[in-house]
Amino acid sequence: MTTRLALLASPTPQARAAEETLRARYDWAGVEDADLIVALGGDGFLLQVLHMLLERRNTVPVFGMNLGTVGFLMNEWRMDELDRRLGRAKPFRVSPLTMTATTMDGEVRVLPAINEVSLLRETRQTAKLEVSLNDRVVMPELVCDGILAATPAGSTAYNLSANGPILPMGSGMLALTPISPFRPRRWRGAILPDKARITLRVLEPDKRPVSAVADQREVRDVAQVDVAVDRVRDLTLLFDPEHALDDRITMEQFAG
């Protein structure tokens, strides 16, 4: 192989065993020197790898092999012909979201999200939120357990479980999906162009505290959350041609 490869594995026994096999079969570089990363694990581990790349401002492609549970974002685990698979792999660009969360104390936290940004009530009290798009209030009051903004890559995860729409890769869209909406009861969310700037303001934050989560990273007691697509830091996932992500997302719409 002329491409410098790095190998990362989740701490599960299955992933560690696969890592040992591949390390004995191929030459590997460190993450800092690699042109491409092979990740062994499940979807959660792949998200960890992608977040690591965002923090390091490193945009090398990632080829995941499933040694987890679901593996929706992963390729099939096979130890043979890795160089051939990587040469044939189809790239998909993933644009992460940027969450800017302002707490009730005025602290500002900026975090990336590859799947979704979600707001969730912290107590038994429902959340009350004001929803704005591009500085225009489109919903003065949403009473709910929460709300989330999902990318196409994340639309089949938490978003789908909350009855949100599945978004094809390359659609240029975001899903804005309520979680157990109480008022307006019949609002089921919206599909937005990914150029939209979403602002979610917490109403009555002292009485009805809300937390904000960017993938797995939480900020508690938020007063306002702004969400927008990061146009600077694109990520690249690699897939076997027969297991391309866009085809998986399409077929997921027909799953029972």
From TrEMBL:
| Enzyme Commission numbers on file | 2.7.1.23
What NCBIfam families would the database entry show? PRK04761.1
Q: Where in the cell is it found?
A: Cytoplasm
Q: Which residues form the active site?
A: D43 (proton acceptor)
* Name assigned to this protein: NAD kinase
Give me the reactions it catalyses.
Answer: NAD(+) + ATP = ADP + NADP(+) + H(+)
Q: What does this protein do?
A: Involved in the regulation of the intracellular balance of NAD and NADP, and is a key enzyme in the biosynthesis of NADP. Catalyzes specifically the phosphorylation on 2'-hydroxyl of the adenosine moiety of NAD to yield NADP.
Predominant location of this chain?
A: cytoplasm
* Co-factor requirement: a divalent metal cation
| Family per record | Belongs to the NAD kinase family.
One Pfam assignment: NAD_kinase_C
Q: What class of enzyme is it?
A: transferase
Give an example GO molecular function. Answer: kinase activity
Alphabetically sorted, this entry's keywords are: ATP-binding, Cytoplasm, Kinase, NAD, NADP, Nucleotide-binding, Transferase
- State which gene encodes it: ppnK
* Listed PANTHER family: NAD KINASE
Does this UniProt record's set of keywords contain Ligase? Answer: no
Q: Where does NAD(+) bind?
A: D43, G44, N115, E116, D145, A153, T156, A157, Y158, N159, L160, S161
Q: Which InterPro entries does the entry mention?
A: ATP-NAD_kinase_N, ATP-NAD_kinase_PpnK-typ_C, NAD/diacylglycerol_kinase_sf, NADK
